[in-house]
């Protein structure tokens, strides 16, 4: 799908955004008395998500009222609902609509973005009718920026929603190639046994049992300025390996490449906005399938990473940090100004913060504060968690440098982040996002299925974190 606003020159109907207490005589002056009476007769009270169609002469539709709830008393606290206006997309009849007013405290930019997000449909395998209600982009809103953000979000959702039968390492590579071609970037892909020759032993070990060869995807965008490197976990399906997952845990494992989907979606947005011209953007994706075969890596194996650190495999279902480690080591060799990893890495992160709120691990206070503040401002929340130094001993087994799955189950998200940090010694700053990449229940602007997390937070923070 292509996100789009309505043609501003086409006929459109007014949509008034109303807060509680603004009905009857207190309604907007632009609405005539019969319309006010009609709204009152319909019981319209401007509750959150409530709507009321307004008649016009000749039995035609004259517009609509939409309730956006009470004005928040504390703008620093996140709203219970991210995209209030997205509710209108499903409620209103097909046609073009423009916002006829701007209530105090209402963010038109987030409103318009939520409208675009709500129009998303995953139609690869089934025709699903999209809402015909189109929004005319408000005149003081950056239309191209919103479309670029929605395009990146749509891309991430499409990739995560596609099952592994059609989104294995080879197909993920093709998506990366198409993105690179669209935006004039260079791409190199190292596959199969060449991973051993080029010193990516852990990517090879994890992916060698898959139906498709494991690979490392490396995209470099042309640009000048500070270097931003994004590393995304691309495990296209995760059986758990020989430590096989139960069926209930395997059902959603098509989404285990959500980190790759997010970094590709963010790259799409940055390129559309031509922000790649002012930075040196690099994308690294280790793309594998964690499968079961005679040549699967085993519990108890000792792997030697690209960086030379040895890793004891105590659980083959903790494979994401293994493939990320080799990719992070490569990224770190460039000593980038900012290195970011995004991965659907641990169940512990979901236990701690749930599906909506991904943990952000970062040692740099300025960087972490900027990203968390940007996420709150653009309704893409993240929550900072610590690289807790005393837990370093938990990832240090007796016979190798590192343990990929410490026993006991405590602090699983933290120990995974500490493991990854061991491969980032040269980068000027490092941040890790442990995302879920999935919306378990539909919400306004966020249909059930694959979803982007952290992309807009990074985008909005860029002016501060990469000046």
TrEMBL record:
Record GO terms (molecular function): aminopeptidase activity
InterPro entries per UniProt: Leucine_aapep/pepB, Macro_dom-like, Peptidase_M17_C, Peptidase_M17_N_1
Alphabetically ordered keywords of this record: Aminopeptidase, Hydrolase, Manganese, Protease
Pfam family, one: Peptidase_M17
Domain Cytosol aminopeptidase: residue ranges: 315-322
Keyword ATP-binding among UniProt keywords: no
Family according to the record: Belongs to the peptidase M17 family.
Identification of the protein by name: Leucyl aminopeptidase family protein
Organism, scientific name: Paracoccus methylovorus
Origin organism lineage: Bacteria, Pseudomonadati, Pseudomonadota, Alphaproteobacteria, Rhodobacterales
């Amino acid at each position: 799908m292509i996100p789009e606003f309505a043609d501003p020159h086409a006929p459109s109907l007014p949509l008034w955004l109303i807060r509680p207490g603004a009905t009857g005589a207190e309604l907007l002056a632009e609405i005539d008395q019969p319309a006010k009476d009609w709204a009152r007769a319909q019981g319209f009270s401007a509750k959150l998500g409530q709507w009321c169609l307004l008649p016009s002469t000749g039995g035609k539709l004259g517009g609509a009222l939409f309730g956006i709830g009470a004005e928040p008393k504390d703008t620093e606290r996140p709203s219970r609902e991210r995209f209030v206006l997205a509710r209108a997309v499903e409620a209103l009849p097909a046609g073009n609509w423009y916002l006829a007013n701007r209530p105090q405290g209402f963010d038109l930019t987030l409103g318009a973005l939520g409208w675009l997000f709500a129009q998303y449909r995953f139609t690869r395998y089934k025709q699903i009718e999209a809402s015909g209600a189109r929004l005319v982009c408000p005149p003081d809103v950056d239309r191209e920026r919103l479309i670029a953000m929605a395009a990146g979000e749509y891309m991430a959702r499409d990739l995560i929603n596609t099952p592994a039968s059609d989104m294995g390492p080879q197909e993920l590579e093709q998506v990366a190639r198409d993105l690179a071609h669209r935006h004039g970037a260079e791409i190199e892909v190292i596959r199969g046994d060449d991973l051993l020759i080029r010193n990516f032993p852990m990517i090879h070990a994890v992916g060698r049992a898959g139906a498709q060869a494991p690979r490392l995807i490396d995209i470099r965008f042309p640009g000048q300025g500070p270097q931003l490197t994004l590393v995304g976990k691309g495990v296209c399906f995760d059986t758990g390996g020989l430590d096989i997952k139960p069926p209930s845990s395997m059902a959603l494992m098509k989404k285990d490449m959500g980190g790759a989907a997010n970094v590709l979606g963010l790259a799409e947005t940055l390129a559309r906005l031509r922000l790649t011209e002012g930075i040196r953007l690099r994308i690294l994706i280790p793309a594998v399938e964690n499968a079961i075969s005679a040549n699967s890596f085993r519990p108890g194996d000792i792997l030697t990473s690209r960086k030379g650190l040895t890793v004891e495999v105590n659980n083959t279902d903790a494979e994401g940090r293994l493939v990320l480690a080799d990719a992070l080591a490569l990224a770190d060799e460039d000593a980038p100004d900012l290195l970011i990893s995004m991965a659907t890495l641990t169940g512990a992160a979901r236990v701690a913060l749930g599906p909506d709120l991904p943990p952000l691990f970062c040692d740099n206070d300025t960087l972490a504060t900027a990203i968390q503040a940007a996420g709150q401002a653009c309704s893409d929340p993240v929550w900072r968690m610590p690289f807790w130094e005393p837990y370093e001993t938990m990832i240090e087994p007796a016979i190798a440098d590192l343990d990929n799955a410490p026993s006991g189950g405590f602090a699983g998200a933290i120990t995974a982040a500490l493991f990854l940090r061991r491969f980032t010694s040269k980068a000027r700053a490092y941040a890790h996002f442990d995302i879920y990449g999935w919306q378990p229940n539909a919400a306004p602007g966020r249909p059930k299925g694959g979803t982007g997390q952290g992309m807009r937070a990074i985008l909005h923070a860029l002016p501060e974190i990469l000046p």
